[in-house]
Predict the 3D structure of the following.
Amino acid sequence: MLVGVCDFPGSYAFPPAGYGGIERWLWAVAVGARAAGADVHLLGPGWLTDLENDWVRRPVRLEDITAGSLVERELRDSAYDLLVVGHEYPSLPAWTRTWSELDCDVATFQHSPVFQHTNAAFDGRRSRLYCYSPEMIERYAGHRPIPELAVHLGLREEEPPATAGTDLVWLGRIDEDKVPHIAVRAAQILGRRIRIVGPVFDKEYVRRHEDLFGAEHVEWVGELGGTAKTAAIAEASVFVYTYARAYVEAGAAVFGESLRAGTPMAALTWREGTCAQAALCNETGGVAVVDPLEDDETAAQRLADSIQQAEDLDHRRVQAIGMQRFDPVRHFQTMATRPC
């Protein structure tokens, strides 16, 4: 089987070290496809050039190819079985024109909760859209979405054997959408230290909650990548996950990252059917479902209960489940199989 994994214009490298969303997913698909025995081409100029020692890189993007050109003929003659692509490309006329000439399947994962695809972008068989949660399946029901948990991998982020950690950890971008201040308050309720890992996207948000963020039990770590990022997760006793009431999480990488590292999760959600419920079970974490009309203090109290629940879980069992649930080989094989 020949698989083309397509990059797209963006600010992150392919594969990224540390952060990035769909870039990490594309890399996980490439790694999973190769491990499953497929031949893999990395399509597009965004892939790191030092990958050429181990990977076939073809620095072309489908949307830039001229009809009838030598490049188009070469791609067609390659006889791809599957293209894996990100974001809106299956709805982009220039991209789909070239794809139609290649006579292969295409698969993508919905990483945005708001982008609207064209009506004909997906037929559920030859062109397939995958969604993480029941919430996302419902939002994209008109495109015949297929339920699947996204797997994300980064450079030098291999997980060590699971160990019972110490402090709590929260990881992500720091802004109003992710509301880490609720995680900080939950830790304070429990008398626990919490490490905040990630880049500050909204300084005003941090200023509004400076009493919490400046408390003695909070350690600001900053943005980490590679082995340091993995270690920050693996060395924690519980990964604390939060997001804002109106925010829709399309497919957070942190669920797979935490479980594969053997760190159970305590998640705050405001409704059923979210990514947290899709990714977690009683053996891997605790989920607090809070009425969005409740205040932050109530939410923090409920989240604190979930932290205590998660802390009693077996880290080795968490890792074993995480490695299976977020296995890049299984993930690729699911996407490579055309539904009947």
Observations:
- The chain is about 35% helix and 15% strand.
